[in-house]
Amino acid sequence: MSPTNRSAESVNRLTTVPSVAIVGAPTNTLDILDDILRRHSVTAVQLPEKRILYMVAELRAGERWTTPAPLLFLFDLLTPFRYDWRDILRRLRHEDQNVPLVVLADSPAPRTIDDAMRAGADELLYEPELSFPNLVWQRIGGLIDLAKPSDANSPEVSTRHTATHPTSPTLSIAAPDLRAPSGRLDATKIAKRLGVPIARLAAVVGVSRQALSQTPDSIGIQHALDDIAHTLDVLDKSLQPDDQQKWLRTSRVDLDRKTPLDTIMGGGADAVARMLESAREVE
226 with 168: CB under 8 angstroms? Predict the structure, then answer.
């Protein structure tokens, strides 16, 4: 099917089913994501750059979109944009604070992460991750579920929830000191920061010690490392380096008398981060 026909078909699908809009020139990303999303009763549609600019202009003019709003916009950077994708994303975020925005890049380069975060994106996906359907859904499924209208049968799908959508720790922190040359989070660096053997961290992320040692920046473990990296970032903002190890190994009433380290290694990194953030707010 030609790119023109694919775009026309996408516009038709946009009016009939809950959808994720892929912004950019047509690539095989549409077919890959459509296959993943259909398992969750969502479809992928292609939106050319000019069409998304028209949609943003409609919002700026206070007009209702002529078609139902997509549940999520994914900016596909695997092919060059004619216009500045950062500017388009920034405009869309300015006009709709609650619309989920995702950037798809070829690799997790710190510059791309920083650009996406500054423009207002909620999440980043990388080309190799498209081979892992469960990982893709882990990254964007929560954003899609939050964007769905409260009445799934209602035709008024352009009305969004007013609740703030969650932001991925991947975009909350660039964490250059925790990343491998590939740009992905490095488990060996995270283990060293925590002061634990790599074997202990391997148990947390669900792989063998040998596998983690051989590929500490594996794509498959990035989601599991996100919360830990975010917690370490909050810890850096809360305590001096010399005080961090002692704090991690001191039991806390807020954590059911467990140490922050044991809580993190037990899968509760987000609870430790919230406790640190709450303490910072009180100060």
Answer: yes
- Specify which residues 47 forms β-bridges with: 23
pLDDT in tens, 66-124: 567 788 999 999 989 999 999 999 998 888 877 888 899 988 677 787 788 778 887 77
- Residue 67, both tokens: 């078609």
Architecture of domain 3-163: 3-Layer(aba) Sandwich (3.40)
Helix (H) or strand (E) run with residue 20 in it: strand 19-23
Instruction: Give dist(CA 58, CA 95) in Å, integer.
Output: 10
Residue 258 gets which letter from DSSP? Answer: B
User: Contact, 247 vs 238, CB < 8 A?
Assistant: no
Looking at the chain, the number of H-run helices and the number of E-run strands are 14, 5
pLDDT tens-digit readout, 45-66? 999 998 888 888 887 877 666 5
Rounded distance, CA 131 to CA 79, Å?
18
pTM of the predicted model as reported, rounded to 2 decimal places: 0.55
